[in-house]
């Protein structure tokens, strides 16, 4: 079924003008170069900073919750903390 669909597209659907290079002669830049220059550069930096902050927050919480909350606040033994952190709901 997929082969028939691919054959139909190859024979019946025309290529776009951009792909054939009719609009601008030739595509001047690659996707990677557009990502790090122009308007996309600001968006890339914003996403990288946001995700780095999220990653660091998750790491800090992953270290603080078991040691700070479970051991010192709830006064669990190390064995109880291990069971609480590694508990499998299945």
Task: Explain what the structure shows.
This protein is mainly alpha-helical and 90 residues long. It has a domain at 41-90. 70% of the residues lie in helices and 0% in strands. It has helices spanning 2-12, 17-20, 31-35, 39-73, 78-85. It is elongated and about 70 Å long.
Features:
single chain; 90 residues; mainly alpha; 70% helix; elongated
From the alpha carbons, calculate the radius of gyration and give it in angstroms: 27 Å
- Sheet with the most strands, sense and barrel status: none
The strand count comes to 0
Order of helices and strands: HHHHH
Question: Which structural class should the secondary elements be placed in?
Answer: mainly alpha
What's a concise summary of this model?
It is built from five helices and no strands.
List the helices and strands and how they pair.
Elements lengths: L1 H11 L4 H4 L10 H5 L3 H35 L4 H8 L5
């Amino acid at each position: 079924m997929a082969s028939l669909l691919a054959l139909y597209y190859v024979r019946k659907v025309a290529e776009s003008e951009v792909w054939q290079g009719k609009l601008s002669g030739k595509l001047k830049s690659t996707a990677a170069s557009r990502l790090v220059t122009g308007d996309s550069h600001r968006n890339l930096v914003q996403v990288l900073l946001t995700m780095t902050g999220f990653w660091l927050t998750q790491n800090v919480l992953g270290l603080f919750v078991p040691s700070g909350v479970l051991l010192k606040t709830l006064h669990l033994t190390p064995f109880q903390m291990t069971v609480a952190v590694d508990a499998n709901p299945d």
